[in-house]
User: Fold this.
Amino acid sequence: MNKNTRPPDKIDTLLKGIHKVEAPAFLLTRIQVQTEHLKESTIPIHRAYSAIFAFALLFFINAWAIQQNSNSNNDVSVVIEEMNILSNENLYGD
Amino acid sequence: MNFEELYNKYKNLVFNLSLSYLQNREDAEDATQEIFVKIHSKLSSFRKASKTKTWIYRIAINHCLDVIKARKRIKRFAYITNIFYPDSSELKHDISDFNHPGVQLEQKEATAKLFDCINLLPEQQKTALILTKIDGLSMKEASEIIGKSPKSVESLVQRAKQKIKKTYKNEGI
Assistant:
């Protein structure tokens, strides 16, 4: 027998000698537990959209409130300036 | 076909394939579990463009290759850890030992050495060899799973064997 051909034959023989084994019986239970756990931990899509919508709404309300507040502040500052009622600690208006 | 039927039909196929890639019973059990969890989550989106068996093979092969990559990362990390903790005589985070329940005791040493050589092969050569020589698939079936022509698969198997032969020669086995 050619020396060079011996190792591949040995490879085939060894690989053919590997027997098929049965998967353990407890695996299905483990898989079912994991899939159930995954189901519980996943957030439903409609809940995710509701959360995004709520945050967006909150953001716009806040932005609108800040804008309103800054506008009213401007009005007040105009009145203060025109009536010359600036808060000043100088009693005699020097 | 529902999930439980699918599991009962393919559990041994997936478990034995995982054993061929990982050569460790506990790792193969974990891999089989993860593979079936993936199958469960992807089952609704499976459009039967390929055969169910081919689809399962692909998921299983990809998962096992990912586990091997993760093992290699752990091994690299172990070497680095060993540099910083030289007191320890053995490697921290060492990888799993050869523990294949399908190998007979008298063949264990020789098969472990053969798998050491198989583990050095590139991914596609390893897959072609496992599918055709251990799982006993035809070149056509293996080619559908790998996504290459039967001739390319045959060539991959031949190159894999040549590489193993070379490693055998170099190590004097």
User: Anything to note?
Assistant: Helices of chain A lie at 6-16, 27-41, 45-83.
